[in-house]
Design brief:
493 residues; mainly alpha; Hydantoin permease; 20 helices; 2 strands; transport; transmembrane
Length: 493
């Protein structure tokens, strides 16, 4: 008899409808894994083409750096972060579920709640920032074009509209996000080209702020490399798997997924951020970005800016709220993905109003990204080490034990927690937080690092060393081969 063959779904022939996504953090069945590496690249490009990412290009200018030092700090930080973060896409590529759930292979099926909380907070903060800046990109142009009020009422209305549209996109999920990202990416490329032309007459490489934020050049440059450069890739430490889980390893190689993730992050972050740096120097943005950007814009550029304020915002915020919904679904299994998405969008919208009426823009953004980078980096390092230890082989069924409220499986460790991984993460996070230097919090280890914020480097190195030492003599759980593999034993609680 001829050997049996398995027919793989053809991505080109697969239905590309934009109906509401059925899956949460469950394992994606092979027949539904119709995504392509270029879809991963496309969504990383499109979802970042918004003012919520552009504004990070303003941070180096607000720190007092000149144009070229600002550019070099962002490029260096982005490339360094991509080296660490891009391989994480391969984890979900193997497990067919999101990254926080996949981290249960290293942290334990309950210990992976650490990743879910980190992902939830990261997406929550960035979603609020995206809607916040998007609202300003709507109110400002409308005020100049039509004379509409630019007070708190107008901003509140813009925030509410953007929040509703964003959550609708997030509810529909993966396929709609994939489609929308392509149009947003194309539209933003046009915006950038027009913006370079429109702002070029006012551009100058001279600093827009007198003096360095940290007192000297190199300390300020290092702050910029972390806050404006490294923070971009770090925002994806739990999000990359939301899209690579839909790509089948039976059809595509790991190298293609990795390259798509890396290129998508580098271009998706640097293009809008460098545009933000260019326009910051052209508009003289010091204490605020969007206000001077709108004020310095040629009248004809206000329409493209307004369109990006709407579509760029809902594309980026929709992707972030989608990720938040998955993480909350993983934390609270009784909630459906749609219910979790709606709940997280309400919290995110509340943060938007707090950000507008209460916080100082520069201090809040800088502190937020540095503090979350300090605790997110150790988690990413441990997850990657676990991926190497198990050689990319996971038991998808055992990873879902917590989601179906059961016990047991090869990732149960000690009551669902891997004490070694949790201890290494806690120690690395503590070192990272103690090394952070922001206007809102200054860690005591700053005096030992010559005033330079090395929280990312110290957190990564410390975590790797501690985890490798703690795991000497122990083995990462690896499922048996397909021929001998048996279902994990679980008991319902």
């Amino acid at each position: 008899m001829p050997p049996e063959t398995t027919s793989l779904p053809d991505p080109a022939a697969a239905p590309r409808d934009a109906g509401i996504e059925r899956h949460g953090v469950d394992t994606i069945p092979e027949e539904d894994r119709t995504g392509r590496p270029r879809d991963v690249l496309g969504i990383l490009l499109g979802s970042n083409m918004c003012l919520g990412v552009v504004i990070f290009g303003w941070l180096p200018a607000s720190f007092g750096l000149g144009f070229w030092p600002a550019v070099s700090s962002m490029v260096a930080g982005t490339l360094l972060g991509t080296v660490l973060v891009a391989p994480l896409s391969l984890v979900s590529f193997r497990t067919a579920t999101n990254l926080s759930t996949s981290s249960g292979g290293t942290f334990g099926v309950r210990g992976r709640l650490i990743g879910s909380m980190i992902g939830l907070l990261l997406s929550l903060g960035y979603a609020a920032l995206t809607v916040w800046t998007g609202g300003a990109a709507i109110v400002g142009p409308l005020h100049r074009l039509l004379g509409l009020p630019d007070g708190g009422g107008s901003y509140s209305a813009a925030y509410a509209v953007l929040a509703v549209l964003s959550v609708l996109i997030a509810i529909f999920g993966y396929r709609l996000l994939t489609r929308l990202s392509k149009w947003v990416a194309a539209g933003t490329v046009v915006l950038v080209v027009l913006g370079l032309f429109g702002y070029s007459v006012k551009f100058s490489t001279a600093p827009v702020v007198d003096g360095y934020a940290m007192g000297d050049f190199w300390t300020t440059w290092a702050l910029s490399a972390v806050a404006a450069g490294l923070s971009g890739p770090m925002a994806f430490i739990t999000m990359l798997g939301d899209y690579s889980r839909y790509v089948s390893p039976r059809r595509y190689s790991s190298s293609k997924v990795f390259v798509a993730s890396a290129v998508g992050m580098v271009l998706g972050l640097l293009v809008p951020q460098l545009f933000g740096t260019f326009t910051s120097f052209a508009s003289g943005a010091a204490d605020d970005y969007v206000g001077p950007l709108v004020a310095a814009a040629p009248v004809w550029f206000l329409i493209p800016l307004l369109l990006n304020g709407v579509f760029g915002t809902i594309g980026n915020a929709g992707a972030l709220i989608y990720s938040m919904g998955l993480d909350l679904d993983a934390i609270l299994p009784p909630l459906s993905r749609v219910q979790a998405t709606i709940l997280t969008s309400v919290i995110s919208t509340a943060l938007v109003f707090v950000g507008y009426f209460v916080w100082d823009a520069q201090d809040a953004v800088t502190a937020f990204v540095l503090l979350l980078t300090a605790v997110g980096t150790p988690w990413a390092v441990i997850t990657l080490i676990g991926f190497v230890h198990c050689r990319g082989r996971y038991d998808p069924d055992a990873l879902q034990v917590y989601n179906r409220r059961s016990r047991g499986g090869i990732y149960w460790f000690a009551a669902g927690w891997n004490p070694r991984a949790v201890a290494a993460w806690a120690f690395g996070s503590a070192i990272g937080l103690l090394s952070v230097d922001t206007a809102l919090f200054r860690g005591p280890l700053i005096d030992w690092t010559f005033g330079i914020d090395l929280s990312f480097v110290l957190a990564a190195i410390t975590t790797a060393v501690v985890y490798l030492l703690l795991t000497i003599g122990s083995r990462q759980p690896v499922p048996r081969t397909a021929k001998t593999e048996a279902p994990a034993r679980t008991t319902t609680v």
